[in-house]
Amino acid sequence: MQKLKVAILGSGNIGSDLLIKLMRSEYLTCSVFIGRNASSPGLEKAQSMGVAISHMGVEEIINRPDCCDIVIDATSAVAHIEHASILKELGKFVIDMTPSKIGEMCIPAVNLQECLDKDNVNMVTCGGQAAAPIVYAIGQSQQDIDYIEVVSSISSKSAGPATRINLDEYIETTEEAIRKFSKCYRSKAILNLNPAVPCIDMQTTVFAIVKDPNIKALTEQVEEMVKRIQYYVPGYSLIMGPIIENGRIVTMVKVQGLGDFLPTYAGNLDIINCAAIAMAEEYAKNSIYGKGVEA
Hints:
The chain folds into 2 domains: 4-124 and 271-289, Rossmann fold (3-Layer(aba) Sandwich), CATH 3.40.50.720; 126-265, Dihydrodipicolinate Reductase, domain 2 (2-Layer Sandwich), CATH 3.30.360.10. Helix content is 40%, strand content 25%. The chain has helices at 13-23, 41-48, 59-63, 77-89, 108-111, 126-141, 161-165, 167-182, 215-230, 267-289, and strands at 4-9, 28-34, 53-54, 70-73, 93-96, 104-105, 120-122, 145-155, 186-194, 202-210, 236-245, 248-255. β1 (4-9), α1 (13-23) and β2 form a beta-alpha-beta unit. The two termini are 20 Å apart.
C-alpha cells in the first residue's frame, strides 16, 4: 500500500512516542526522525528501529525537501514560529504539536475534514484535545453560554521540559480553543501538575455556566463525542456527568495512554499524539485516494 512520508521534527518524548505510533500506520511512514542532539535518547531509539535520523533540525528538510510529504513539528512554540514560514515555502503539510496558534486548530472528533485543505494544522494542547469535544457538545446543545472553565490534572512526571517552557502558551491556546469550539463568551484554562506517587492518569474537568441548561440534550451530545474520540484515543473515557452542581454544568473525563514510548499515565501526551496521527492519516487517505474517510 502506498504510504506518505513523514518527517518528525523533535526527538523528545512527544516525537519519540509519535514515531512508534507512526510505525503502526497503514498510510504513513517515518522517512526521517530529526533532532538537535546527536546523542539524544530519541535519536538512538529511532536508529535502533531502523529509521533514518538527523541531528540537523529543520535544516535537514531545507537541504532535502523531497525527504517528506508531511512534517510533524514536536519542538516548541517559539521554534515553530521560525519553522512555519520555512515549511510553507517548501510546500509541506505541517502538523504543529506546539501551542503556537499559527495553524488551523484541529480536534479530530470535531473538525477533521475542515482541516484537510490547510497547509498548517495546530493540535492545540493536551487539555484542549481532552476538553474541546466536550465544550463543542455544550455549544451544540446549549444556548447563551456565559463561561466555560477547563481544569486538567496531569502527573508531574508527564510534564517534560517543552510542556513547562510553553505553559503560558498552553493556557492562552487552550482558552482560545474553548471559545472557538463552544462559542462561549468567556473561558479559563487551568493546568495542575500532580507529583503524587503512583502517578495519576490525566483527568480534565469542564465547568460551564449556562442560562437554561438542557442536560438531556447535552448528555446525548457528550456520549456521541466520547465515541468519536475513542475511535482514535481508546483510553478516553467519561467518568462523571454531565450534571448540574451549584448552578453549573460539570463533566469530567479521564485519559489513559497506550503505553507506547510513554507510560500509560501520560494520557496528556498520548491524546495529542493520537490526534496528530488521526489528522496525518486522514490527510494521507485524502492524498492517496482523492477523498477523506472520517475518523
